[in-house]
Amino acid sequence: MNKKAFCTAALAASALWSGVAAASATVSETPSAAQSTAAPADLALQISVGEPSYAAGSGHLALFMAINSLRQELGVGLLRQDTSLDTAAQAHAAYLSSNNLSQHDEAAEHPDFYGASPLLRARKAGAPAAQWVGEAVAAAKGGNDNDIGQRCFRQWYHTVYHLQSLVGNQESVGVGYSQRGSLGLNLCVLNFGTLTAAQADPAPNGVPYVGGQQFDAKTIVTVPRSGETDVDPSFNGDSESPDPAPDLKTPGRPLMVYANGAFGEVLSVGAFKVVDSSGAEVPARLLVSLGAKASGSDGVADAFVRNNAAFLLPIAPLAARETYTATFSGTRAGTPVNLSWSFKTARASAQW
């Protein structure tokens, strides 16, 4: 197909329900201090991709457009359609729908079994043996397939572990979308592929730090985005298992700072806070990677947070229609990072 610039899609609607099982966040942890952090030319960002083959108005197209819209706005590179991963993702969506499940693994004794793990399903569908495969799963109700696909996407967008999976260095994506199951839900599955210059021995469900597409080491990504409006005040806790804050009944919308993670360079935190329009600081919990905690930064060390990410999780939902300002200071691979940005919340939290 001819290449063309990707057109931004509207990120509308809120999620009604999700039930995602364990968030697999397997990553490569084999950095070398002697390795260069510069991205080779073949790891440059994909700023355009071919038109997808998904049908107009389908849940598949809604999911594809939503994730690429986000990645375009954040400057982390677009994802091209991967037909092998389409097959694997669709097979898993059918399995989940048939068995009223929402998880990454499959059991051979259950109807519509295709493969035990995201990696094995991708290989069965024809993916290269060297390709890393990561997966995200959600389920939702809605008025039509386009609406439901966007609702699934927004579930991931308002989490911790799944949020970072949306903006990683993967380079392709396959989309699965099931017919409505007996619970009245449509299942949404994304399979991410990382192949170019990725290290050997892919994990069953993971993304390596190296390879794929790498944004500039000086670029720092924030979510919510600077100037973003209608930010949901709440955290979609139902989509995260394990729960990053099981002791908090109703946390607020997580804030993420995300850096280039080539070779596992650590993003460490000196200070990370958010204040409302009056200047009052919002009580929040800092979540950092194990590498950041080991380097001396404050915060809760979380094994599922990538080395190149840090999260601030408000203890309670943010206020509606309020403007917040976040500030961050720290280091990435020893280089100072200082950020300040603002966003505005929506009228009310979504009913997940």
UniProtKB/TrEMBL annotation:
Domain SCP: 66-192
UniProt keyword list: Signal
Region forming the signal peptide: 1-23
Region (Disordered): 226-250
InterPro entries, per the entry: CAP_dom, CAP_sf
A UniProt-annotated Pfam family: CAP
Transmembrane intervals: none
Presence of keyword Ion transport: no
The protein, known as: SCP domain-containing protein
Taxonomic lineage from the root: Bacteria, Pseudomonadati, Pseudomonadota, Betaproteobacteria, Burkholderiales
